[in-house]
Amino acid sequence: MRLASVDARGLALGLHPGMTLADARARLPGLPVHPADPARDAAALAVLAAESEMFTPMVAIDLPHGLMLDITGCAHLFGGEAGLMRRIRQRFRQRGYSPVLALAPTPDAARALARFGGRDCLSAEAAETRVLPVAALEAGEETLLALTRAGLKDLAALEACPPGVLAARFGAGLVTKLRRVLGQDNARITPLRHLPECLAERHFPEPVLAFDAVLALVRRLAGDLARMLEARGEGGRRFELSLFRSDGQVRRLVVETGHPCRDPDVIERLLALRIEALADPVDPGFGFDSVRLAVLASEAFGQVQPDFDGHRLEDLALEDLIDRLSTRFGAARVLRAEAEDTHDPVRAARFVPAQSQTAPSLWPEPEPGEGPRRPIRLFEPPQAIEALAEVPDGPPLRFRWRRVLHEVARAEGPERIAPEWWRVEPGTPSRDYYRIEDSQGRRFWVFRQGFYGQSGQPPRWFLHGLFA
Amino acid sequence: MPATMADPSADLAFRRVRLARALLSDRAAPADPARLPARIAFGLPALDKALQGGLARGALHEFHAIESADAAAAGGLMLALARRAAGARPTVLVRQDFLERETGALHPAGLPELGLDPSRLIVVRARDVASLLQAGVEAARCPALGAVLLEFWGDHRAFDLTSSRRLALAAQESALPILMMRVAAPVAPGAATTRWEVRPGLSRALEARAPGPPCFRLRLLKHRQGLDLREWCVEWNRDRAVFESRHAGDAAQDLLHDRLQPGGASLSRAVPALPADRDPAGERAGSGFRRAG
């Protein structure tokens, strides 16, 4: 068993990662050890990454145990770079971490400074990577050994070498890495989460416990967003509210709208509905530090002009209702029917979320003077019934469904519906559908699968639907 | 919705069809709720007269299916009434998930056969009765709707006097009818303006004993204004979108008539009835097929 990682005090006492546990115990008999758990480390890092999003929306995890924050254009919100670094350090120390911070013009330089600089580097001006050892390039044991043997100790010495020679000996990767660490080449980070289209946020000077105050703030943020969206001529389709708790937990709530929207009232109402419908209520814990409202998806927003008959405004009221219901019950529970061009009765109609924008479908027109051809209730899968038919190809005379015997008074059929051969197993029998009515007036849609006399077994009967 | 369609040509085509249909059938929706009549007439003079013009629009109406097998009939009646009440306006139907297992899932392809446009129907699947009632109240506040339909199973403590009153008030405020179907539920006091028991009736036979248009037996169980509690047998005429009279006596006679004349062959529909793969000699020929192919 070996030490996976050692804290600052352990390092000071001469322990280092990779040492066997027996050696470490021999030196320090009372050494407290905990089993390494990389999965929980990764989870803790993810939580820290989510929390760091209160400083900038661009956060990436820098394995194995770093976080990379792109603070371009964010520092002024926290009183400049120095203020931001102070705030970050204070926050992480509160959590019990001992962070090493480095601010540098490029991500690679910041990483090299944090890992090999040996101390904090709190401003980009002070970011001097030339004095770092060649190990800061993280180029692997062999390369490191070769570089050291060649007498190249730090990056300044490496920089002095002609790049062509370095590339020929160690590959182009090393030269690229060197340029990046020296800040001559900038490789952007890939943030963990997509950057929102636009966002509005507020930081509280003190953690806020009252949830009503947070909701009141949401309205002002929605107003800010509305102005931003208006300037862009857009409306949001998906909004995300992030609540940053002072203990590092981040709660995110997403609401969607069926049409582009930027009305602060609507956004606030949808979010309030979403919060109300939560199975686990939002727990303020020790208070919220900051609140962010972001537009994750937006679309061009057309100004609405009411038409003469007022249909346009009605459509809007309906879309509002659909949004509210979808927010409260989930988009998969608020549905609209869509017709499919197929003769398979099960596939002829399907439900899609009412929020999705789909082409309106044309439904088959009924025949005048006829009874309904299709049932209003469908059982899928069809329910097996025991039926007795007068003639082999005729409708049933009586049948038993759910232990109740029904005497057939009226019947029409068959309507033969063959399965779609390009979808089903070959040999799937076709179905002869009958519309039947029992002596009490209940109307059923039953079918016989297969034919009499074709295979050894008699065909089976199923009940597929109910008519009004 | 059509107005926010991504593809403008599809939207245009849809609007054209909608306009053509509206012109042909002359059933364009009135623009504002004030112009909708205050009562939903069945279209059957005798019944409307007994109800003093029909069902009140801004009110809660309960439809009871005593047995679960009658739920389809009650659902069909509610859809037909929604068609009368809403015209071309959208309708919201809230169904409890449990009903799906017990009485079958809603099949949209059956709605045009009752005269409803499925694209004007928004279906909300409610996990339980509490959320069903929430959705019902929420929908009842929307001025753009024509009717709100609620369907749920059995006796539920979430549906008490308070929630029934809340629904009735929401209906009254927005002048929107809330039609509620209750399956296998005891009749309990509530804020409903009318309460009906719905059973299917034996339909008028078409040629060769084919089942005809849907027929319902309605029994008025309660009316706020204390009207006579009577029973009616009505038939839904989808083509004219009205209810028509069908006397219970007719049905009995029809049945008798059928019994006396056995052996009427069943009818074929869109496909031929005769099996193509076997010798049809055994079939009874010439027994009045209406149409084939």
Question: How would you describe this structure to a colleague?
Answer:
The complex is a heterodimer of chains A (468) and B (293). Chain A has helices at 8-12, 21-27, 38-52, 80-94, 107-116, 141-149, 155-160, 163-170, 172-181, 211-232, 264-276, 311-329, and strands at residues 59-62, 66-69, 198-208, 234-245, 250-261, 288-300, 334-339, 349-353, 377-389, 396-401, 404-417, 431-438, 443-449, 460-466. By secondary structure, chain A is α+β, with helices and mostly antiparallel strands. Chain A folds into five domains: 1-36, MutS, DNA mismatch repair protein, domain I; 37-181, no CATH class; 198-321, 2-Layer Sandwich (Dna Ligase, domain 1), CATH 3.30.1490.100; 330-363, no CATH class; 377-466, no CATH class. In chain A, β1 (59-62) and β2 form a beta hairpin. Chain B is an alpha/beta fold and 293 residues long. Chain B has a domain at 39-195: Rossmann fold. Chain B has helices at residues 8-25, 45-50, 71-86, 97-103, 129-140, 161-174, 248-260; strands spanning 39-40, 55-56, 60-65, 91-96, 105-106, 121-126, 147-153, 178-183, 194-200, 215-223, 231-237, 242-245. In chain B, strands 6-4-7-8-3-9-10-11-12 form a nine-stranded mixed β-sheet, with helices on both faces. In chain B, α5 (129-140) packs parallel to α6. Mean pLDDT of chain B is 80; it is low at 1-5, 26-34, 262-269, 271-276 and 278-290. The interface between A and B is large, with 81 and 93 residues.
